[in-house]
């Protein structure tokens, strides 16, 4: 399985990772015959379940890396193996080039407390503590003095939009506010990576969207590396720089949101993205056609990463084609025909036809 990115600036680098539950689990990845069995066959033959099967990928520094899949796809097990909250069966995991599987208990504790913080779906707040003291809890565990940790906690409380609520108890907060406390607690220890395990799935839709916006804002301001687990495609498309789609413990496709929507790897992915508003994900770089000689000097200029939905408005306003321009050079043009083709999904059908013809 390809990693989908250059590993030279990877924070997490994962290779051939397996997590098997059951008796004598280590024999499964070591035996090619057993490793090749379907989930049902493996359980029948060995009594084991492979939650993660031969997975390899890199998480690049500063990106939001989304792992998406339905219930039972292995995504939550996977994220827990990254810091060995669940011990992998085989494979390798490195964090900033350091072998995570070789860490002793002390260094593993340091990794979890200082370098990679987890935000869970269940908020896990201490009910007898105030918002401020919940946020400061991780710093307290680290041995930071009371005045320093409360000052840091106050700063983070304000950053996540909870100013004025410092002295409330968790029971006095809404679900969204409680999740902000959980996020603030993770941020307070200033981790290199934030790991989110479906943190917003229990929230109401409007609150969930608000929390997504909060994650986007924090990432824009801080550029912190994030690994985000979700079963929701729209959430994955909103948040992810890259998305890794899993099924049955395996990677089905890994790519940018645009790559996954525009070029689904198989029918499973195609079904996943069927109802996605393509114009809100696909850029004009994919929609453009070559420019005729007379078109290179006319029409409004659009950057290659301009979304089709914005290009539609530009074409409608001007009444003519728009140029796709990068570095002062016209790469191509888009007009109503190209843009409508994207909206209707005809470009995807053409790509699929070309791929099919190439294999004949």
From TrEMBL:
SUPFAM superfamilies: P-loop containing nucleoside triphosphate hydrolases. It comes from the Bacteria. CDD domains: ABC_Pro_Gly_Betaine. The keyword ATP-binding applies. PROSITE patterns: ABC_TRANSPORTER_1 (PS00211), ABC_TRANSPORTER_2 (PS50893). GO terms for molecular function: ATP binding; ATP hydrolysis activity. One of its GO terms (cellular component) is membrane. GO terms for biological process: glycine betaine transport; response to osmotic stress. Residues 37-273 form the ABC transporter domain. Keywords: ATP-binding, CBS domain, Nucleotide-binding, Transport. Gene3D superfamilies: P-loop containing nucleotide triphosphate hydrolases. Pfam families: ABC_tran (PF00005). Belongs to the ABC transporter superfamily. This is ATP-binding cassette domain-containing protein. The lineage of its organism: Bacteria, Bacillati, Actinomycetota, Actinomycetes, Kitasatosporales.
